[in-house]
Amino acid sequence: MTPSSTPPNAESSLRAPTIEDPSVYLDDPNRKLLEIDTETRQGPALFRWLTLGMEYLIGAILVALIVAVSSNVVGRSLFNHSLPWVDELARMLFIWLVFIGAAAAFARYEHIAVDALVRRLPLRFAHMLYCLQHLIIAGLMLVMVFGGYQVLARSSGRSAIMGVPLSLVSLSLVLCVIFIAAVSLWRVWMSVRVIVQPHGQSAESQGE
Q1: What CA–CA distance (Å, rounded) separates 174 from 141?
Q2: DSSP one-letter code for 175
Q3: DSSP 46-65
Q4: Which residues contact 94 (CB under 8 A, 6 or more apart)?
Q5: N or C: which end of the chain has fewer CB within 10 A?
Q6: Using CA of residue 135, residue 137, residue 140, residue 144, what is the dihedral sign?
Q7: Backbone angles phi, psi at 57, to 5 degrees
Q8: Closest C-alpha to 205, from 126, 101, 129
Q9: Facing residues of 51 across strands?
Q10: Euclidean distance between the first and the last CA atom of the chain, given in angstroms as a whole number
């Protein structure tokens, strides 16, 4: 049988199956108002610029980590010599990478979460849970700010090789939790507005 004589039903059965957009399972329309998005200008301008700045900082730290660690690998392999301060620098950069990355991921709602229940709730009840969730997060972050401040106050030493103040390393934790607490309080306010006027907020989100 020639290709031109293939029945239409056979041709349709040979077509590749349609792949569903994975964003259907990743995006939750109920929480759209709570996301920080620099492309669509979703969220306060200050949070958007801070998130974008953190993402650029993450990229710079990642490049510095790769260069530093690779230089020592090449030095040990080819020249049987390594720089003693590289390992210390890599540890400090990794600590900053973890905390700044955690803050940026929180702003974009990219932390792992079990949202099977909240996706099935109506808009108002979903934001009741979001409000409770972010009140708890804000409370925990404020406790960590207090603890981080104490760590900063007591970090008077310096690193063994590079002589970097240890308080500079602890500063990443304080900045991270302050940002997360601020975003959490903003999300609490947005959720309260949705709870009070669910139809008005949903109409605004569709208009955006």
Answers
A1: 9
A2: H
A3: HHHHHHHHHHHHHHHHHHHH
A4: 65
A5: N
A6: negative
A7: -65, -40
A8: 126
A9: none
A10: 54
Instruction: Tell me which long-range contacts 67-75 makes (C-beta under 8 A, separation of at least 24).
Output: 68/93
**Using an 8 Å Cβ cutoff, are 91 and 161 in contact?**
no
Q: Select from 136, 140, 132, 142 the least CA-distant residue to 178.
A: 142
pLDDT digits (tens, 9 = 90+) for 127-170: 999 999 999 999 999 999 888 888 887 777 787 777 788 888 88
Residue 67: name the closest of 59, 102, 199, 26 by CA: 59
Specify the pTM: 0.79
DSSP symbol at 25: H
Give me 111's structure tokens.
């932390």
Q: Which residues lie below 8 Å from residue 85, measured CB to CB, with a gap of 6+?
A: 161, 162
Distance separating alpha carbons of residues 61 and 192, to the nearest angstrom: 37
Give the DSSP H or E segment for 178. helix 166-196
Q: Which two tokens stand for residue 14?
A: 């040979």
What backbone phi and psi angles, to 5 degrees, belong to 159?
-65, 155
Report the C-alpha gap between 2 and 33 in whole angstroms. Answer: 56
Most confidently predicted of 71-75, 77-81, 152-156, 176-180: 176-180
Q: Are 113 and 174 in contact (CB under 8 A)?
A: no
What residue type is assigned to position 22 of the chain? P
